[in-house]
Design a protein that fits this description.
This protein is mainly alpha-helical and 337 residues long. 80% of the residues lie in helices and 0% in strands.
């Protein structure tokens, strides 16, 4: 017998002994129905100790997967039975949503990268096809904008009608779009990517149009007052759709049904969680963007503040709070790949 085979045999023997020594205890914990926080904490510590050992010596073993699921169950029980000092409404946006962002940071990155690619496709298409912008934005919109440019007011479209009515229309439409991003994830993520493609190409061609008219910098100062939050929310909604779709495509150690439930739950939380951002963007577009005469410093300040907030709340703060609370969920590795 080779040295490698001997080592493998030794490891298997040690794992068998480890299972024999722990089986009775694990079954007892598995059937534990107590809601006593101290008992739950004690069992959770014992299980995580065994899980840490198993991950060290048998990382790909079914035993490790079993202990991983068992520890996850205890973690959820502890979390549910923890007394909340503040309202659920506050803790959702303060703690829960940022932790979901951290858990699914890969999907957020993928959604961002896909959207950037689609925007570039829109830019290139508009650059090399003079009719592309009209095809995407419609003849009426392009003709109206051309007329506004001729009048010296290229962004006059944002000044039309009642601010309140515009706010309601934009808010309802953008919430609907965000939910479409999420729901179409059921089509194995392809539906979400298609919606991202549509919006990315539209944004790319729209932005290129103003650059081609020599209004690129001015368009950024005006459009991105609301666009920073609006486009960010669409990218996040795209991530929610990918979470849902990937739960069907890659269930990992879960059954496909359980994986789908987890993906649907977390994706829906994200979709609901970004509604305040969408409403804020709609407010900016309806009540602020129309003031195209505002000082450049004010426009840059609003745009920069929006961008800094999104980077902080979606990327930096989730990382900080995850580290602060030491919330290293045993099942995180199962859901973030």
């Amino acid at each position: 017998m080779s040295i490698l085979n001997k080592k493998i045999t030794t490891v298997k023997m040690r794992e068998a002994l480890f299972i024999k020594q722990g089986t009775e205890k694990w079954k007892e914990y598995e059937n534990k129905k107590t809601h006593n926080p101290d008992e739950l904490a004690e069992a959770f510590i014992a299980i995580t100790d065994d899980l840490a050992y198993a991950k060290t010596f048998y990382p790909k073993s079914n035993t490790t997967k079993y202990l991983n699921g068992l520890a996850a169950g205890f973690h959820q029980s502890i979390y549910k039975n923890k007394k909340e000092k503040t309202s659920r409404f506050v803790t959702f946006w303060r703690d829960e949503l940022p932790l979901i962002f951290y858990q699914y940071r890969k999907q957020l990155l993928y959604s961002f990268l896909f959207f950037i690619v689609f925007v570039l496709m829109g830019v290139l298409s508009a650059k090399y096809d003079n009719n592309f912008v009209k095809l995407i934005m419609g003849d009426d919109y392009v003709n109206m904008t051309n007329d506004n440019i001729a009048k010296g007011d290229p962004f006059g479209v944002y000044k039309q009608g009642s601010s309140t009515l515009m706010f309601l229309q934009i808010a309802i439409n953008n919430v609907k779009v965000a939910l479409i991003f999420f729901v179409l994830g059921m089509l194995f993520s392809v539906g979400t990517l298609f919606v991202s493609l549509q919006n990315g190409i539209m944004l790319g061609s729209f932005q290129y149009y103003f650059f081609s008219k020599g209004l690129g910098w001015q368009s950024i100062l005006v459009i991105w007052i609301h666009g920073t939050l609006e486009i960010s929310s669409f990218i996040i909604a795209g991530a929610a759709g990918l979470i849902l779709g990937n739960s069907l495509l890659f269930p990992k150690t879960y059954t496909r049904l359980v994986s789908l439930k987890n993906g649907a739950r977390d994706g829906l939380k994200i979709s609901i969680g970004i509604i305040p951002i969408i409403l804020t963007a709609a407010f900016f577009e309806s009540f602020v963007t129309r003031h195209t005469e505002m000082p450049v410093w004010l426009s840059i300040s609003i745009l920069a503040a929006s961008l800094v907030f999104m980077i902080w709340y979606v990327i930096l703060y989730p990382k900080h709070i995850n580290k602060k609370t030491n919330l290293n969920k045993p099942y995180t590795d199962e859901t973030t790949d």
